[in-house]
Write a structure and sequence with these properties.
The protein is an alpha+beta fold. The chain is built from ten helices and five strands. The longest helix has 26 residues, at 297-322.
């Protein structure tokens, strides 16, 4: 059972519980793709821009920050094989610069002073530990808080915009619970087509979001208890779901990943036991009734190594299917 939930994880479970399981329970990691790398690099450039004095926040500086951000990570394992050629990388980079050019049509960085960037927010709602990272939080001239999120994709039609605010409502809920102030507005900045969608919020809306996230959390707990994470066909399946090759909706011979789930749970349990034993300077100080009394940390570490080797072997087989 997972211990924490982020707004993005909650949204993922709403969309498809099976995808949620593959990613968060079975720990089948989706490799970084071109879209994700572009979004991450654009976000980093914007964050770095607002760390500078306002008079230095020029378009050319922003573009150079994008180039610098990419230069810093392009050799990492998760990025090194993204491109088949240097021309492909240049084309990708130009697309990223175009997104930043589109951003500058929407806001003037020299006239904007974010209150905070990349703020880590967390809180407990009943038995749910909810946490995440805000892109940006602003304060208007009247002192009202505005929560801002950058999106590198295209804005949906206005009539479909409100569901996209679910994650920001949860961030606003956490902010309210943490500092006792209800943000006034949520803002989604879509860079693909230079569009801003905003939503005014109040305590009633946040209370409704609280009810919804607790409902999702109950469904997640039920899914774990019954080991039932159904696959749900949706508009993202065709072009955007990495796990489609191992999904039972698209592969009648899809592999059973429950063994991975069991291994992940055993690793987590063993790591918790190591942490519990390590809290005592002398293991003899553990209560006689403790099942950890006569267990050696070295034996537990060996268990983890064996489990991870088994996990790696299964993941290698599944990854070969996902790469086809």
């Amino acid at each position: 059972m997972i211990k924490n939930l982020s707004p993005s994880r909650a949204s993922q479970f709403k969309t498809c519980p099976k995808q949620f399981k593959f990613s968060n329970v079975d720990k089948i990691k989706e490799p970084t793709n071109l879209v994700q790398a572009k979004g991450t690099t654009v976000h980093q450039a914007l964050e770095d821009l607002y760390d500078l004095p306002s008079n230095e926040r020029t378009p050319e500086v922003l573009y150079n920050l994008f180039r610098k951000a990419w230069s810093n990570v392009r050799g990492n394992d998760e990025h090194v094989n993204l491109f088949e050629s240097l021309d492909d990388e240049r084309e990708w980079g130009q697309e990223g610069l175009n997104l930043l050019h589109n951003y500058l049509k929407l806001e003037n960085p020299q006239k904007l002073e974010p209150l905070e960037q990349e703020r880590w927010v967390r809180g407990s709602i009943e038995d749910l530990n909810l946490r995440g990272i805000l892109d940006r939080m602003d304060e208007d001239k009247d002192g009202n808080l505005i929560i801002v999120d950058y999106k590198s994709g295209k804005a949906p039609m206005a009539k479909y915009k409100e569901p996209r605010f679910f994650a920001l409502k949860l961030y606003a809920l956490l902010i309210r619970d943490e500092i006792g102030i209800t943000p006034k507005e949520l803002k989604l900045i879509y860079l693909k087509n230079s569009t801003i969608h905003t939503l005014n919020i109040d305590d009633k809306m946040l209370d409704e979001a609280k009810i919804e996230i607790l409902s999702i959390w109950d469904e997640i707990k039920k899914a774990f208890k019954e080991n039932n994470f159904p696959a749900v066909k949706n508009g993202l399946c065709k072009d955007w779901c990495y796990y489609k090759p191992i999904c039972p909706l698209f592969n009648k011979e899809a592999p059973d990943t429950d063994e991975l789930k069991n291994i992940v749970e055993k690793i987590a349990e063993t790591e918790e036991n190591i942490e519990a034993i390590s809290m005592f300077e002398n293991q003899d100080d553990l209560p006689d009734s403790s099942p950890l009394k006569n267990i050696k940390i070295s034996d537990l570490e060996i268990d983890i190594t064996l489990l991870k080797n088994k996990q790696d072997k299964i993941l290698k087989e599944i990854t070969s299917l996902l790469g086809k």
